[in-house]
Design goal:
Chain A is α+β, with helices and mostly antiparallel strands. Chain A is built from six helices and seven strands. Chain B has one domain: YVTN repeat-like/Quinoprotein amine dehydrogenase (Methylamine Dehydrogenase, Chain H). Classes of the chains: A alpha+beta, B mainly beta. Chains A and B meet through helix 4 and helix 5 of A and loops of B.
């Protein structure tokens, strides 16, 4: 964590972000981490959230070691992202599949020749992490006393990406799928977070394909990660697997 | 409106429609070439046929056109618009009467609608057309009797008909479907009646006939049918001449019948299914709006219902109390939210729900107008609803209140 977080993203099967802040967000802040299984903290200097960022799912060394091959790891990653998507977010699920297919297609060509990765497809894990079904809002207070800023509405987006500078927030559908109140809340949040929030609308199939390609191509800009996917140094002991409900 | 009950909603205007404020369930918006916004309304009954209201300024609406029916034993009830083409339903009181069917109008000049053609569905067992859906400019999907259709039960006369209007001056039938067992001569057995009623009045409950058929550009191969006591059906209409059932769900019985609308939320694999309250004083309570899991369209599963205000407060206020129409997310100048649902609930007014969590729909806003002067019942009976793409909400009273225009803080 570079600075005190001032922005949160609660994602997945979340109804009340206050509850997730209490359960997960404050613990993240206290430990200097930024990405949890349902909550993300963002401040100035927060690194991009990528598929290989630690925290968004619990992958024990044993689980990863048991995978048959590198493809198995990619499939596990895809499976875990799909599991974050709530049941009634069909459009988000379809779009994430499209995006990850694009990432797979780009990954093989994105290898940095100087990297020590043994498999070009490992670049897959450098792709930006899609966070589905998000509630986005402002935070106030220090790391030890984080509170949701109530002066601004919390806004629901279908998907969010954090690229290290900008929160790319995606809404499916044209302007007329959004109520006037939500339009105003989005505008207020954009003003409050300027220039870090960028709202993108996917109105048709063309938008869908082009945004997926654009975000997938981002991995070409990324130097090879210095650690393998999900093997982050602070994880010493295997953690229990999350129960799927 | 001092005695209105409201939360997060404001009344912008109320137009009594020149004293003919009884409106049915046809509401559609036209954007004219000269930049006006005209809301077209089908009346609940005679003497008026339809009314065009200039709602460009929602605070200052103005009737610009109002037409009469040819006689008192019929009603229009429903209409729909694509561009400058309007379809109006005609239903007669007694099978065999006429005119029964659908009429097409050119409304390029909204002050002077020009009749283009009439598709006649009258017949010895037909009361004509009750409800229509017309959003693609090519096909009308309607609930109507037909000259050659003989139902086993007189109330089961209105079936699903697809009318090809690509040549608006010569509409032709493209396809039809009815619930098996309801036509005389069907191999399937007749359905068990949910709540048998005497036949002295053909309107109302105890019917296995179509009410709404909705077809959207997202899935032009699917029709979503509210088949009254037959429940909800999803039809494959990729071959318009031969619709086939791909999914069905029916809570009646034990619930008291009258599935009205089946509205898909495509990005979420959900359906909103409404029943219609059709009896005063909560005689047929509860009439619900259901959220249905449609991830597998051949295995529809109800997962929740919209919260309604207390029956002990509204059940005996007068008139009907419970679900009816929702804003149907039609294409055009229309709100198309898949998380916010706008509905009208007769004496419980206009109500807005958040279904972001479909297991727990929440009431966001409501407006219950006071009883309008001249109504048959001591409450407003909010009968239909339309929301434009700006979020302006239009609703109508069944008996006398006319058009109500709202905005909501949502």
């Amino acid at each position: 964590m570079i600075s005190t977080p001032d922005l949160f993203v609660a994602f997945g099967k979340v109804r009340d972000p206050e509850k997730v802040l209490a359960r997960e967000g404050r613990e993240l802040a206290a430990s200097g981490r930024e990405l949890g299984m349902q909550f993300a903290l963002i401040g100035r200097g927060t690194c991009a959230f990528r598929l290989n960022s630690p925290g968004w799912f619990r992958a024990t060394p044993a689980l990863i070691a048991a995978l048959p091959d590198r493809k198995g790891l990619r499939l596990l990653c895809r499976d875990r992202i799909e599991k974050i998507v709530p049941a009634f977010s069909a459009e988000a699920r379809r779009w994430i599949t499209l995006y990850l297919d694009q990432v797979e297609a780009v990954a093989g060509k994105a290898i940095d020749p100087s990297s020590n990765l043994t498999d070009p497809s490992d670049c897959f894990f450098a792709a930006l992490l899609p966070l589905p079904a998000c509630l986005v809002g402002k935070l106030r207070g220090g790391a030890g006393n984080l509170q949701i800023e109530t002066a601004l509405d919390i806004v629901r987006f279908d998907l969010v990406f954090w690229d290290g500078c900008t929160l790319v927030a995606i809404l499916f559908g044209a302007e007329n799928t959004t109520t006037p109140g939500k339009r105003a809340a989005i505008a207020a949040l954009e003003r409050a977070l300027a220039p870090r929030l960028r709202v993108r609308r996917i109105e048709n199939n063309e938008d869908s394909v082009s945004l997926a390609a654009q975000l997938a191509a981002e991995i070409r800009q990324v130097p090879a990660p210095h650690y393998g996917p999900y093997r982050f140094p602070e994880l010493q002991e295997p953690l229990p697997m999350e129960e799927e409900s | 409106m001092d005695s209105a009950q409201s939360r997060n909603m404001r009344l912008l205007s109320n137009d009594r429609l020149n004293g003919f404020g009884g409106v049915g369930e046809g509401m559609a918006m036209q954007l004219t070439g000269d930049g006006r916004r005209i809301l077209w309304l089908a009346h609940e009954g005679p003497p008026k046929n339809f009314t065009g209201v200039d709602v460009t300024d929602p605070r200052k609406t103005r009737v610009i056109c109002q037409t009469d029916l040819p006689h008192q034993r019929m009603r229009s009830n429903s209409l729909d618009i694509t561009g400058n083409l309007m379809v109006v339903c005609y239903q007669v009181s007694k099978p065999g009467d006429s005119p029964a069917g659908i009429e097409l109008f050119d409304i390029t000049e909204p002050e002077n609608p020009r009749s283009i053609s009439f598709f006649d569905t009258s017949g010895p067992h037909s009361r004509g057309a009750h409800c229509c859906w017309f959003v693609d400019g090519e096909f009308v999907h309607c609930a109507s009797g037909a000259p050659d259709f003989e139902p086993r039960h007189p109330r089961d006369d209105q079936i699903y008909q697809i009318i090809d209007v690509r040549n608006p001056s010569r509409p032709v039938e493209a396809g039809r479907w009815w619930m098996p067992g309801t036509r005389k001569g069907d191999a399937a057995p007749p359905p068990d009646r949910v709540r048998p009623m005497p036949l002295d009045n053909l309107r109302g409950p105890d019917a296995f006939r179509l009410h709404n058929a909705n077809v959207y550009p997202e899935r032009p191969d699917r029709a979503y049918l509210g088949y009254i006591d037959g429940g909800a059906f999803i039809l494959d209409i990729s071959d318009l001449s031969e619709p086939t059932v791909v999914g069905a769900w029916n809570p009646h019985p034990p619930y008291p019948g009258f599935t009205h609308t089946v509205m898909p939320l495509f990005s979420r694999d959900l359906l909103i299914v409404t029943d219609e309250c059709i009896q005063d004083d909560a005689e047929d309570w509860p009439k619900l709006s259901w959220v249905v899991d449609a991830r597998k369209e051949d295995n529809l599963v109800p997962i929740s219902t919209f919260p309604l205000p207390p029956v002990e407060e509204f059940g005996h206020k007068g008139g009907r109390f419970g679900s009816h129409n929702v804003h149907e997310n039609r294409p055009g100048p229309s709100m198309r939210s898949e998380t916010i649902i706008y509905g009208c609930f007769f004496n419980a007014g206009v109500r807005i729900y958040d279904v972001s969590d479909p297991y727990r729909p929440e009431t966001l806003a409501y407006f219950v107008p006071p009883a309008p002067e001249g109504s048959r019942v001591p409450t407003a009976q909010m009968n239909d609803i339309y929301v434009d793409e700006r979020g302006v909400i239009y609703s109508v009273d069944r008996w006398s209140g006319g058009l109500y225009v709202f905005e909501a803080d949502i």
